[in-house]
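Give me the fold.
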Amino acid sequence: MERYDAIVVGVGSMGSAACMHLAQRGLKTLGLERYDIPHTMGSHHGFTRIIRLAYYEHPSYVPLLRRAFELWRELEQGYGETLLHVTGTIDASGEDEVVFQGSLESCLLHDIPHEVLTGDGLHARFPGYRLPSTHRALFQPDGGFLIPEACVVAHTLAAAEAGATIKAREGAIAWESGPDGVTVTTDKGVYHADQLVLSTGAWMGKMIPGFAPLAVPERQVLGWFQPIVPAEFTPATFPVFNLLVPEGRYYGFPVHGVPGFKIGRYHHLEEMVDPDDFEREPNARDEAVLREVTAKYFPDAAGETVGLRACMFTNTPDEHFIIDRLPGSPNVVVASPCSGHGFKFASVIGEIIADLVQRDETSLDIGLLRFAEGRWDA
């Protein structure tokens, strides 16, 4: 029976990148995806995803981001289409709040070019923003947005070109790990390999016994609103943003792919769900949560609704990623979940996965992302 060096279960954001990096290193690689490639059932659809260097979540992400930028550009060159659009990024909140302060800390620690603007100064510079005058905004010129569906396609094509076998519409039912390798059973066959990569996003809790508390799927909804003043919301005039206001923490984009300004609320309505059984069709309450903030802080974008889409976050208790070998299964690498801020890292996580599979170490610092004693303690 045919045997692989590595099987990757889940050919989405991280899995497609892992397939490419593994195959390009000469490893015999099989990628298995239960849905289409790409698809709209998980977390990598929606036309745009933010990429930013000023990282308020934790400054140790910045070296990973720098490598991610390099790898996205390399992938883009091979693919022949633009995957990363530079708009600059805005991280805004009250002066003493985490979004501004955390972003500023990352910039100062890692010597990242940036400017600090008041709410009024931000409006003067980028008229689409109408934030309180007491807000502080950190502008970082290098960030922007990725095209997630195209990124998954580019990684998958490059993986196949390097010799990987990619099978879509074939769902993994079970896996076993032992001294002689791993076995993966799907709805169409049985496969064997030396090592296994699990990158199934919102389904991680169903793939790994006991893992469910560490990978909690959450319903997320994005909205697109037709700008009243279109010139203020183009990629040239409107940087992508992260914004903390009394209504919550929001993120958004200029017009691209859909004829509307895009906005989302982190943890939307805080609805924890079964990834195989939840309300995928957005409703009036979903729309109202997004329209209220658009009308208040981006009034020139608050025209007709042109789109609403549901996807999923998959949250860890500390909202940091999990990238490591699975305890008790030394030939299994876990690459998920990413708590709603992971897509921008997909290129570098693919490289890290290949490092772990190939030589059980990586030169990049992933200490924050590993299984560690006490990590999940309150």
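The two ends are 47 Å apart (CA to CA).
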